[in-house]
């Protein structure tokens, strides 16, 4: 009985170390990118954020989907984040922004990192101003 408890303890420690390694290797990350476009409607075609890594010509595409409770990012605002990304791609396509997310890109499995948030200058997030005069009745 004592030996089986020791084996279970060792297996538990190995599993915890493996999970810690995987979390540190492929857990939360951030990327400095310029958002060049957005695609998808969130239903038939999933949301994607198309970017170029800042200062390079390397592209990186993010998937933008609700994570729910697992992995524990509690992300339920994919449509809102897609709207922000679209606004940034129209207002400030040449301004580097920080995209926070998790995951990694594996082209042969069609895997993309999932965007969780976007940090951008306020001027890139504001609604565009129109210079049309007010209509008179």
Structure description:
With 137 residues, the protein is of the alpha+beta class. The chain has a single domain, classed as OB fold (Dihydrolipoamide Acetyltransferase, E2P). The chain has 3 helices and 5 strands. It has helices at 2-26, 78-91, 122-125; strands spanning 28-39, 48-53, 59-63, 97-102, 114-119. A hairpin with an 8-residue loop joins β1 (28-39) and β2.
Please state roughly what percent of the residues sit in beta strands, choosing from under 5%, 5-15%, 15-25%, 25-35%, 35-45% or over 45%: 25-35%
Q: Give a count of the beta strands, DSSP E runs of length 2 or more.
A: 5
Distance between the ends: 90 Å
Strand order of the largest sheet: 3-2-1-4-5
**Ranges with pLDDT <50 over ≥5 residues?**
none
Largest sheet: 5 strands, antiparallel
Q: Would you tell me the structural class of the helices and strands?
A: alpha+beta
Per CATH, the class reads Mainly Beta
The run of helices and strands is HEEEHEEH
Mean pLDDT: 87
CATH level-two architecture: Beta Barrel
CA radius of gyration:
21 Å
| Structural domain count | 1
Give the helix proportion (percent range). 25-40%
What is the count of helical runs? 3
Could you tell me the CATH topology label.
OB fold (Dihydrolipoamide Acetyltransferase, E2P)
Based on Cα principal axes, name the global outline: elongated
List the helices and strands and how they pair.
Elements: H1 2-26, E1 28-39, E2 48-53, E3 59-63, H2 78-91, E4 97-102, E5 114-119, H3 122-125
